[in-house]
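hiii so um. not sure if this is the right channel but i have a protein structure encoded as tokens and i wanna go backwards to a sequence. like what aa goes where. can anyone help
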């Protein structure tokens, strides 16, 4: 790594930190994330991550969110997590109220790993359920069942009060009843839920099998999930994310608000909060061997489109004063005709402070957002 690989962020800034752990016991049939089942690479990979993090020593940056994702971080060898957190602590001032998340899979969730998380200062856990039906999980290539999730969740809640899970809509053989059951399980253990519509990505086994989703059925499942989670006290704050007791994902909010964050590990990305992006190679071996990161300067059009797209995914939408501070002109004046038309069609809500998608149109937001992009 050279000095040109460092993403420069002003000293004293609070950043989010993401570390990608690409190891999995098995690859899910729908997964297009950068991951591997070759556990023999773990030591070399962790050493490379630690080296990359160390390059930011002396940067004068604070970290108010840390997210260890994957892949499956709970597949790591004992002691790997403390190595990573030691490097983070030496390179960043981690704030006393920082949200620190680690992803875990049910089949690799052990008391030893959870205790290691506690020792490292982790205060939030994310563990995927994906479906409440064992047959659906098996068809999707998941290596856990519903009982495995419940067993692991029982271990998690003994140590953590901030507990998130994921479910996917549109998996093969999935039914609306599955979504209702999943919501019941989530309500028993979790304070946060991410609800994702299935995207059949090129190159995945699911894609190669010829599987496609039924958009109308997925939309029906989304409505069911929203209603069921709401009954259990979860509030939607982003199109795919729901929280109760205020337990939103502070780290993910940084992405949606276009705030600065740093990414470490293969395929990890960073953003200076202004106009510069940094991306690591998605080839795990090349990353281990020290491949340089790619630095990209965003155009004003890129910045605008990204801001509009990300902010409109959230319930709060675009804050008009924040937009003005970033871009130097008024969003509501620049887009007056389009906003009047969208408001007339009950597709958006707008007031003197914000522009946001109408709550009942969140699942079909893409076409609305495109109307406001350049």
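sure thing!! here u go:
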């Amino acid at each position: 790594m050279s000095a040109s690989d460092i993403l420069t962020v002003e000293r004293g800034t609070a950043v989010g930190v993401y570390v990608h752990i690409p190891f999995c016991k098995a690859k899910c049939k729908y997964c297009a994330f950068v991951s591997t089942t070759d556990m023999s690479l773990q030591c070399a990979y962790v050493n490379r991550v630690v080296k990359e993090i160390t390059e930011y020593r002396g940067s004068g940056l604070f970290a108010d969110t840390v997210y260890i994702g994957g892949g499956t971080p709970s597949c790591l060898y004992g002691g790997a997590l403390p190595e990573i957190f030691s490097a983070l602590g030496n390179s960043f001032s981690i704030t006393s109220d920082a949200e620190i998340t680690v992803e875990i899979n049910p089949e690799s969730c052990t008391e030893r790993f959870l205790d290691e998380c506690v020792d490292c200062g982790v205060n939030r856990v994310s563990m995927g359920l994906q479906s409440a039906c064992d047959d659906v999980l098996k068809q999707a290539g998941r290596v856990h069942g519903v009982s495995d999730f419940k067993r692991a969740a029982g271990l998690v809640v003994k140590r953590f009060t901030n507990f998130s899970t994921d479910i996917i809509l549109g998996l093969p053989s999935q039914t609306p009843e599955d979504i209702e059951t999943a919501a019941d399980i989530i309500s028993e253990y979790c304070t946060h839920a991410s609800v994702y519509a299935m995207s059949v990505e090129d190159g995945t086994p699911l894609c190669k099998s010829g599987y496609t989703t039924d958009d109308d059925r997925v939309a029906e499942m989304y409505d069911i999930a929203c209603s069921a989670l709401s009954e259990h006290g979860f509030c939607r704050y982003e199109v795919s994310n729901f929280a109760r007791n205020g337990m939103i994902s502070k780290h993910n909010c940084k992405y949606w608000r276009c705030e600065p964050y740093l990414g470490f590990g293969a395929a990890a990305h960073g953003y200076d909060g202004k106009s510069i992006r940094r991306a690591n190679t998605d080839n795990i071996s090349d990353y281990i061997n020290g491949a340089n990161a790619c630095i990209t300067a965003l155009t004003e059009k890129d910045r605008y489109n990204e801001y509009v797209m990300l902010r409109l995914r959230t319930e709060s939408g675009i804050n008009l004063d924040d937009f003005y501070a970033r871009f130097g002109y008024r969003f509501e004046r620049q887009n007056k005709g389009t906003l009047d038309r969208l408001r007339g069609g009950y597709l958006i809500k707008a007031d003197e402070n914000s522009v946001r998608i109408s709550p009942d149109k969140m699942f079909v937001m893409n076409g609305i957002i495109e109307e406001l992009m350049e």
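oh and The CA atoms of residues 47 and 288 lie 8 Å apart.
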